[in-house]
Amino acid sequence: MTAARAVSLAFRRVRAAHEALRTAESVPAFTGGVLAAGLGLGGFAVLVLFLWIISPFPDSGLYGALHIAADCWLLAHGTDLVRVETLSGVPAPVGVTPLLLAAFPIWLLYRAGADAAAPASTDRAAASAVAWLIGGYVAVAAGAAILTSYGPVRSDALSAGLHVPVVAALAAAAGAWAERGRPHIPLPAAFHRVTDRVPAGETGPVARSAAAGVAVLLAGGAVLTAVALVLHPGATGASFSRLSEALSGRLAVLALSVALIPNAAVWGAAYALGPGFSLGTEAVVRPAGAVGDPVLPDFPLLAALPQAGPGTVATWLALLVPAVAGVTVGWFAVDREAAAGPGRTAARAALGGTACGVVLALLTELAAGPLGSGALADFGPSRWLTAAAAVGWTVVIGAPTALVVRWVRRFRASRADLDEAYDAYDGYDDADDADDADDADDADEADEVDGTESGTGSEDGRTETAAPDPA
To answer: Does residue 137 contact residue 193 with C-beta atoms inside 8 Å?
Structure first.
């Protein structure tokens, strides 16, 4: 096959795919994707421009502020940024995604996917509309990537091409799927061969137990972060003062700190699980103690970290968080409505703990990343160690807890049935006693009536016998 023929064939296939995807909802869906991306960029631009306007000494003009807004928008999708102007002269990557920033564009994509799929007459037309929506969103993202491809802080084109389409596809497809009534999703045959072996009633308890375990771990991580900040108020306040003296600078630091609160919760969960997190390539912080001498950037959330040294009683108390998470997984693995045997109950808790570990691995992957080159190339918890620790804690504690909860509920149910049967038996005996009493009363009344009638006859007989015969 010649090169011209191959190009012609590829062009025909692209054109056929375009014709198959083109529906009446194509243009509105594409416009919806552009609008969702524009609203996301606009929201970030409003925040950055506000800080730029109130800044007494802005370092760059309006174009520089819009450049930073586009950088932040791409960073919210997981795109890595690169700082070119460094003291060493070596470009430094920035790969930590503020999870709270990601919530805004994901919500816009979710709503746009639902709006695009709502007027579609069939599921195929809805899928086509979502594809056009993603195309419009990615087109705007490509323009933002080109805009931010140069400057002191620039976006990584390869990272943007990998992360933005995936985030857009997942969020928009989720919105469309929920809007269409959660229809059946065609999956590969190999996947169905695995899922068909799982009973239909197992999905609910497993999903509930996994979600409860993740919620407890993240809540515990957030509490640990809050306690660390409360115990180090001076260091946190001094960090704010050192970073900026102007109000605009301090507001920017505060906004970034708030955006990183979910990341801090994930880091706190990894700390409580045991593996902890790394502060570069030369330091690790865990309940057993802080090892190494990290070279940290000046930031309020990092100022509350424990100093190097062995663990204390207070740090070891952090292990209560995964213990409570394991108990929670076991509690929610027992279904109140559908009774299950001991083996199935333990299997539900084990699957819930495994799913909890998988979710923690994904969150850790998003919450961690490099903050530079050299010593800061590895910053945050390890997804593999965190996932393994989460699975270990929740399965080892969750499975026995589920068995105990099952036994307690069955014991209470049997006691309740026994009490109900005993009450019913007492009521039956009382009813029999009442019937016997009524029968006895009726018999006594009958005897009295018979006795009265017999006595009257005897008196009449005696009277008749005693009466003289007048003859």
So the answer is: no
